[in-house]
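Schema walk-through. Below, the input block comes first and the output block second. Nothing else is stored per chain. Lengths vary across the set, and this one has 240 residues.
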Amino acid sequence: MSGDCCRLPPIQAEYTPKGDYSTINGLKTYAVGPEDAKVTVLCVYDIFGYSPQILQGADLIASQGYRVLMPDFCDGTYATGDMFAPGGEEKRAKFFAGFPGAITTQLEPVSKYVQALQSASSNKIAAVGYCWGYKVAVEAQGNAGVDAIVGAHPSFAAKEDGDKINVPTLLLPSGGEDMEVMNHIKSTVESKLPGKVSLKHYPDMPHGWLAARGDLSGGKATEEFADGYKLIVKFLKDTF
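--- output ---
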């Protein structure tokens, strides 16, 4: 996981979500957007779970005609702000030692969720992976066959990811990601899918800026948050 992900505190934000929670495919799921949409966007959240910012992002995507589902893959076990405050080192270390969002534990649940969605409808499925969720989305693409991937401030990114990805891809790295790796992934996928891969680097944004570390108080950070979601929607429209 990105070192920044393990150090930076989340931004506090207030937001009233537009969707609802229900049990879908056996998991509590935040669901928003038209049920008759032709594309389902599966969001794999970051370590802070259902933060106000990530829910707002889901609602922004849904407002453009997409059905957005955000399952509670970590079953309510999320990082909290006090883990990143002075004196929270021990609590933070304990959390990450037992973090349920490890790739090894979440690959199967995410893949099964995708397969259940595929069995229930003919919808195209795009997976938006935040932080560790990016890597799970990459692995699940090979396992279950999602139709597109978005990596938002992707953690655990490795050059070999480009060999595994065989679908249209959007990468949105922050200042906390290794751009040599990001560019390698882009060029590798681009060689297989010309014109189907996009990358935009946000060097001034912290890891997590499209989720719990998004600063929605105004100014450049809020503008970049909006820009990131505009690019996600544009990618979805261009892909499907």
